[in-house]
Amino acid sequence: MSRLHRDAMKQLTNDIVSGRLAPGDMLQREVDLADEMGISRGVARETIRALEERGLVSVRHGRGATVRSSAHWNIFDPDVLVAVLATSGGQRTLTDYLDCRRILEVAAAGLAAERATSAQVAVIDAAFHGMEEAAGLPASDATERRFHEADLGFHQAVMAATGNQALGVLTERIHSALLIARYPLARPDYRQTRGLPEHRRILDAIAARDPVAARAAMSAHLDTVASYLSEATRAAAVDAAVI
Question: CA 126 from chain center: how many Å?
Fold first, then answer.
């Protein structure tokens, strides 16, 4: 995807997600869109196609592109998710993600404890040590991304350790979006006292082949994530009241 294509798509995605373009509104014709945004008609056409692929618009030949309601948006797409998290509806989206994680990851931790091979436990352990290493580095954007990548790798390794291919495919789209969805809930100051010990308990329970303890440890970890979300929601409400 070219820079012009991505910039145009990002602008229109933001316009749709923010409500500046409401459901039922028509996008400009390709030629008018190209003129307004300083892009070629070819780039304008590809931009509209990208919006259609993400569920943001529907296209009917002879009528053009019509903005769709949020029920049709591909909320797992990184471009859509970034735009949604920047709106007042972002907290609801994070709640939805947390619900998905509770439904899938608590049970997955128990299955991993029952089924994981020694090699799969080693992969989970390596991801945990990657988290530890990143948490011990000086704070920076690169360090933060490194920690989240290791954290995501930990949870992906737990899913893989279930030995359930269908579950892995089902959660792949969620995991691909988690790197973006995690940032608003990041709490670097709590990693040594909460984040790392909680992941250690999940790892230890899986390694000990204790499914009850594994499910409990994963559930407790997601309770912590839920508390971070509640804090973020309250802070957003206070900010809105001040404004």
Answer: 22
CA distance 104 to 108: 6
pLDDT at residue 242, rounded to an integer: 44
Residues 6+ apart with CB under 8 A from 48: 27, 30, 33, 57, 59, 65
Q: Please report which helix (H) or strand (E) contains residue 66, including its range.
A: strand 64-67
- The encoded tokens of residue 31 equal 């030629």
What gap in Å lies between CA 181 and CA 48, rounded to an integer?
Answer: 25
Return the CATH number of the domain spanning residue range 3-72. Answer: 1.10.10.10
Sign of dihedral through CA atoms 219, 225, 229, 235?
positive
| Mean pLDDT value across the chain | 89
Residue 190 burial (C-beta neighbours within 10 Å; 0-12, 13-18, 19+): middle
For domain 88-242, give the CATH number.
Answer: 1.20.120.530
Q: Is the model's pLDDT at 75 over the cut of 60?
A: yes
Count of all residues that appear for the chain in the document: 243
> Considering only CA atoms, which of 139, 141, 143, 162 is closest in space to residue 151?
143
Boundaries of every domain in the chain: 3-72, 88-242
